[in-house]
Amino acid sequence: MAADLSAKLRITEIFHSIQGESTRVGLPSIFVRLTGCPLRCDWCDTDYAFSGGETMTVGTVLEKVAALGCPTVCVTGGEPLAQKGCLELLKALCDAGYSVSLETSGALDITPVDDRVSRVMDLKAPGSGEEASNRWDNLARLTPRDELKLVLSSREDYDWAVRQLREHRLAERCPILFSPVQGQLAPEQLAQWILEDRLPVRFQLQLHKILWQDSKGR
Ligand SMILES: C[S@@+](CC[C@H](N)C(=O)[O-])C[C@H]1O[C@@H](n2cnc3c(N)ncnc32)[C@H](O)[C@@H]1O
Ligand SMILES: Nc1nc2[nH]cc(C(=O)O)c2c(=O)[nH]1
Ligand code: SF4
Ligand SMILES: [Mg+2]
């Protein structure tokens, strides 16, 4: 069935930049940032997307994306899956031939997302203050096309992440990303722990924050 292009979405911004996160890091990409999030991660760098925004149809978002002329699209937020219309947007983007990734907190069911989308899902560590929001049944749904990210603010978070990695055999499911919370955990410290423990994970630094000091981190 075709996507519903009349479905409505609340959108904070649509922009063209260098992908700063996930295994797609470095690729020119279009970002579609959906407004609103039911979580409040302690260290969230995107609180400007919690409210405001502009209502648009999926069809209008497609037109704005097409005008930016880039084959790779990242749908993010806020929490994109908190809006029903997000599923229609993801399907419409895939139908139009884009290579699509979705950044999601893992607090909402990822099952209904179009199979062609690469789901980049966070597992919220205790330091985020949102550990209780993790939907643990999402883990079993991850495929090698998806990615799992753990954003860590301390040694306690790191130890917690290593336990999850082992207990849920996460590295067998999909690529695993360990990223320091910017300004809270020194990147070189996290890198050293990963090396010492011989972890099969990918160290990640938000590239856009190295490239640009813009408060919105484009
Ligand atoms: C702003 S969130 C939007 C998507 C979704 N709500 C989520 O949490 O995955 C995009 C990504 O930025 C990460 N992020 C947010 N603030 C950060 C920070 N201060 N340092 C490192 N990563 C951060 C999140 O963990 C998430 O992986
Ligand atoms: N350049 C850039 N890359 C990104 N990758 C994921 C982002 C996000 O906020 O989800 C993001 C972002 O905000 N900027
Ligand atoms: S879930 Fe994502 S957007 Fe929401 S508060 Fe956490 S990092 Fe920010
Ligand atoms: Mg960001």
UniProtKB/TrEMBL annotation:
Q: Where is the Radical SAM core domain?
A: 24-214
Required cofactor(s): Mg(2+); S-adenosyl-L-methionine; [4Fe-4S] cluster
In its UniProt record, a GO molecular function of this protein is:
S-adenosyl-L-methionine binding
Give the enzyme's main class according to its UniProt record, as a single word: lyase
Enumerate the residues binding [4Fe-4S] cluster.
C37, C41, C44
Q: Name one GO biological process term.
A: tRNA queuosine(34) biosynthetic process
Q: Give me the residues that bind S-adenosyl-L-methionine, please.
A: W43, C44, D45, G78
Give the EC number(s) listed in the UniProt record: 4.3.99.3
Gene3D superfamilies registered for this protein in UniProt: Aldolase class I
On whether Metal-binding is a keyword of this UniProt record, the answer is: yes
Please provide the record's keywords in A-Z order: 4Fe-4S, Iron, Iron-sulfur, Lyase, Magnesium, Metal-binding, Queuosine biosynthesis, S-adenosyl-L-methionine
Top-level division of the source organism's lineage: Bacteria
List residues binding substrate.
I18, Q19, G20, R33, T76
Positions contributing to Mg(2+) binding: T46
Protein task: Catalyzes the complex heterocyclic radical-mediated conversion of 6-carboxy-5,6,7,8-tetrahydropterin (CPH4) to 7-carboxy-7-deazaguanine (CDG), a step common to the biosynthetic pathways of all 7-deazapurine-containing compounds.
Please state which protein family the record places this protein in. Belongs to the radical SAM superfamily. 7-carboxy-7-deazaguanine synthase family.
State what protein this is by name. Answer: 7-carboxy-7-deazaguanine synthase
* Species this chain originates from: Denitratisoma oestradiolicum
Upper taxonomic lineage:
Bacteria, Pseudomonadati, Pseudomonadota, Betaproteobacteria, Nitrosomonadales
The gene from which this protein is expressed is: queE
